[in-house]
Design a protein that fits this description.
2 domains; about 210 residues; elongated; Ribosomal Protein S5, domain 2; 5 helices; single chain; 4-stranded antiparallel sheet; Alpha-Beta Plaits; alpha+beta; 5-stranded antiparallel sheet
Length: about 210
């Protein structure tokens, strides 16, 4: 994935009450449909008393329809997920999901009212959303001795990476997430400072 765009810097949550129904709208950064559905499941578990947990997501760059999705979650077809998705697609923000949790208040809103309520909740959440520039990341693996850990941790920090997984047995195996733009410099520093002992490999898939 390439291109200059922004993504959510952190989650945001807003609430509205419309004709006695309460709408809780949450926006978070995601990078796949699976992560979006996990957010929906998490909110369903957190608010089991709610009547609906509607979802929309754009997992790629802003406006990209390659990996998008929407769910009305029991509301009339087209009254929730799609209006939410349309707002996300027009937001100029990428890699985000919105879940709107509805607590039914006893008054029906009608399809038009639902469209306005669900789309409006996403618009309101976007107004409060902080964003950060998208940075393309790549995962690599490095194996070394226990004595190499201070060097590895120092270099990861210096090159704006993170340790996403670690295994310790007779040796140390770290899975790192690094900005693609920093990968060559990181690998060069790693080889130089370790005297050529340490190198990167791609982690196995699956």
């Amino acid at each position: 994935m390439s291109g200059d765009f922004v993504v959510p810097a952190g989650p945001v949550q807003v609430e509205e009450v419309i004709k006695r129904s309460r709408f809780l709208t949450v926006i978070e950064r995601i990078t796949s449909g699976a992560e979006a559905r996990a957010l929906q499941a998490r909110l369903r578990s957190a608010h089991p008393e709610a009547s609906h947990h509607c979802l929309a997501f754009v997992a790629g760059p802003p406006g990209c329809t390659r990996e998008i999705g929407a769910s009305d979650d029991g509301e009339p077809a087209g009254s929730a997920g799609r209006p939410m998705l349309n707002v996300l697609l027009g937001s100029e923000v990428g890699q985000l999901a919105a879940v709107s949790v509805r607590f039914y208040g006893g008054t029906k809103l009608g399809v038009g009212g639902l469209v306005r309520a669900y789309a409006g909740g996403v618009k309101l959440a976007l107004e409060s959303l902080d964003t950060t520039p998208y940075v393309a990341l790549t995962q690599v693996e490095v194996r070394g001795e226990y004595g190499d850990l201070p060097l590895l941790e120092y270099l990861v920090t210096q090159h704006r990476g993170t340790v996403v997984d670690q295994h310790y047995d007779s040796a140390v195996r770290l899975t790192l997430s690094l900005p693609q733009s920093a990968l060559a410099a990181f690998e060069g520093d790693l080889r130089q400072r370790s005297g050529g002992r340490l190198s990167l490999s791609r982690p196995p898939k699956g």
